[in-house]
């Protein structure tokens, strides 16, 4: 995105800095949620891994 303010076809001022800040915030939030989900999945896998192999023998 550009860092200069521009106008769209209806003469509304486009605040590119605010748009970029919101995009960064949303991206960072999505990354945090993704890591949290990954930790949960890995914790479940490793928690079940020890018990599953013990029963298999």
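^ structure tokens above, recovered residues below v
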């Amino acid at each position: 995105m550009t860092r200069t303010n521009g106008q769209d076809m209806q003469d509304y001022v486009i605040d590119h800095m605010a748009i970029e800040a919101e995009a960064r915030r949303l991206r960072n939030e999505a990354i945090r949620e993704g890591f949290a989900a990954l930790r949960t999945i890995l914790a479940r896998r490793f928690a079940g891994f020890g018990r599953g192999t013990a029963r298999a023998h």
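Residues 6-56 form one domain.
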